[in-house]
Structure formats: structure tokens, C-alpha cells
Amino acid sequence: MTSTRCAVCKYFRRRCPPECIFAPYFPADNPQKFAYVHRFYGASNISKMLEELPVHLRAKAIESLCYEAKCRMQDPVYGCVRIISSLHQELHLAQSQLAKTQAEIALLNACVGVVEPTPSSSESLVQQNGIDHGLDNASDIWFY
Amino acid sequence: MTSTRCAVCKYFRRRCPPECIFAPYFPADNPQKFAYVHRFYGASNISKMLEELPVHLRAKAIESLCYEAKCRMQDPVYGCVRIISSLHQELHLAQSQLAKTQAEIALLNACVGVVEPTPSSSESLVQQNGIDHGLDNASDIWFY
């Protein structure tokens, strides 16, 4: 019954049981997906991580592990931490630039006799400062 | 010679050899550091990752692995991918806000008779669009 084994059971050359914990996330036609996570986490740790999660969250966990593993493959030193670092820098730059342009607007508004800031410029700093790293809707999470 | 064992050799209750690959990064007085990465990656995979890197990059690799492991501990579904997703959203918001304020500046400049955009506003979009996720200086990377 080789054709019905998942990628993990195929890799380990073992029978794929009907309730195999890997089967829904590692289909036989995509062995590379398992290869990525297996290289860094190992099948045993992935199995433990899956067992600790409710079934409806397991696919998302595997996708995020695959993403991290791909990043680690491309950058063995920093992995996806490099992306976090880079995004922090970009965000800092964008926010600094935004503060500058808002200051320019305040000056220009004064020049044209409009003392009060426009609604969009007054909202922007509040929006920038009000965000934390949590997401209200976890299903919207970005992977790739 | 128990007191001279690193955290990894202590965990596995084995002798810590003089050239132990783990010893420089997992001192005995910080067993939690190894516990984080061991839980998700396993000692064998960590050893393999270290062996594939030049010695001067190994400490940075261990720090980034610890960071990812801590994130995965806090968020078993998304790990540090949630942070990447959140930063992407914040960056998108900041850049949208920046584009709006730049449009306001252009309008206000026209009102005060300054047709050309100011240097800072004309530079900003170029700066925003010109950044990729690579870092010129890897030693500046952000971890915590």
C-alpha cells in the first residue's frame, strides 16, 4: 500500500496508520515539505508539537514551521529573525519619515492660514502608536 | 567533574569533552537556554546546525534559534511568524499613511505657490520602495 502512505511514513519506510498524525499535513506528493521541517525540528518533535495542539490549529502550525524552516535553510545563522530585524528597521524608517512629513504639513498649514491639522495627519500618529504585535484575527496571518 | 559540564552535557548526564560543541553557547548556569531550543529542535539537530557553520557565526545562530524557540513556546501555532505578520501590517499602515501625508504636502505646496516638492518628501517614497529584507551589516541584527 505504498501509494497511500504520507510523506513522513514514506520517508521512514513504514506503514502509514489510518490515524497517522502527519498524514493530513504531509501528502506523499510533496516530500520536500517534510524535508524542510525534518531537517531542523525532527519528526519526533513535530509529532509532539502537533499532539499538543487542537486539530483545527495543526495545519497553521505546520505552515509556520515550514516557513521558519525555509528561512533557516536560506539563512542558517539568523533564519527568519533576519526578516524581523529588517522589518523593524523599515518600520522605524517609515515612522520617522511620517513624523517628518507631518511636521512639514503643520508648517505648510500655518503658511496657508490653516491652523488646525487635517484629520488624516492628526489620526496618523495615534494609529502608529496604538498597534501592538497581537493580531485580532489569527486566520489573517501572513505566511509567505 | 560535574561542575565543569555545560548545560547540554549536564542535561544528558554525560562527560563534557574539552572540545564540546555546545559548551561555548550553553553554560551550566543557564539550563533554561538549552531547554528552550531542545524542546523544539533537539540536541542532535542543534549539533548538526552548529557543525555546518564557521565558529564565529555559531553564537549568533544559537541566539536566533533561542529567539525562535521562545516565540514558539509563547505561541505554539504561529511562533515568530506572528511577529513577522504583525510587522508587515504595521509597515503597510505606516507606508499608506506616509503616502497620504505626502499627497497632502503636494496639495499644500501648490496652495502656497511652491510647485516643486520639498527634498524630504521627494526622497521618502524612494527610500520606502528601495529597501529589501537583506541587511548590509549582519552584526547589527536585532534579536530581542
Can you describe what's shown?
Chains A, B: Residues 4-105 form the LOB domain. Chains A, B: This is LOB domain-containing protein. Chains A, B: It comes from Artemisia annua (Sweet wormwood). Two copies of one chain form a homodimer. By secondary structure, the first copy, chain A, is an all-alpha fold. Chain A has two domains: 1-74, no CATH class; 80-110. The first copy, chain A, is 60% helix and 0% strand. In chain A, helix 2 crosses helix 4 (55-74) and helix 5 runs antiparallel to helix 6 (119-129). The model of chain A is unreliable at 121-140 (pLDDT under 50). At the A-B interface, helix 3, helix 4, helix 5 and helix 6 of A face helix 3, helix 4, helix 5 and helix 6 of B.
Task: Tell me roughly what share of residues is in helical segments of chain A.
Answer: 55-70%
Structural class of chain A: mainly alpha
**How many independent structural domains of chain A?**
2
* Proportion of beta-strand residues of chain A: under 5%
Q: Over all CA atoms, what is the radius of gyration of chain A?
A: 24 Å
SSE string of chain A: HHHHHH
Task: Indicate the overall shape of chain A.
Answer: elongated
* Uncertain ranges of chain A: 121-140
Number of helices of chain A: 6
What kind of oligomer do you see?
homodimer
Arithmetic mean pLDDT of chain A: 82
Q: How many extended strands of chain A?
A: 0
Largest interface: A-B, 63 and 62 residues
The largest sheet of chain A is:
none
Protein name (chains A, B): LOB domain-containing protein
Organism (chains A, B): Artemisia annua
Pfam family, one (chains A, B): LOB
Family (chains A, B): Belongs to the LOB domain-containing protein family.
